[in-house]
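Example record for the data management plan.
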Amino acid sequence: MFAKPVSGRTTAAVEGDAVVLLIGMRVNHFWAVHQWLPVFLSMYRMLGELARDRSRGLLGHILLTGSPRTYYVVQYWESKEKLYAYANSPDMFHHKVWSIINRKERAGKVRGHVGIWHEAYVVPEGAHESIYVDMPAFGLARAHGQVPVEQRGRFAKDRFAHRSSRAQVQNSQVEQETA
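Corresponding structural encoding:
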């Protein structure tokens, strides 16, 4: 259950863009357990649904707390298209939850006991880098795999400059088309 640290320096083996979703909730009134507990439990239910079907595109996640009031999940996705597909799929739990929220909002039954939020980021290759020292696979490295830092560059500027073989092929095709 507990991962052993990987000795030395490693970096995430991300190829291409990194897609990150932060999604969470804030308990505005602790006494309104009947309002915020279902939201809290629905986060786990959605993660379970995604874990059962890896083809949906969730590569990994981390559960975090920002305070006794704020809970969130950092999620790593294969692509923004797979993230959108999950969010909009009528047969997935996420769609059902938002239908309930929207219905309550239209009926004026949202009382402000719990806040919900998300932020989504598509980080292009060359616009992110990572380093882990004596750490088990964590974050991007857990989602995408980890490699010795020397494969991507000892310094952050080198890791930012790393391009996957796929990106190198795409760049050469663009150069040939423009020549």
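Summary line stored alongside the record: The chain is about 40% helix and 30% strand.
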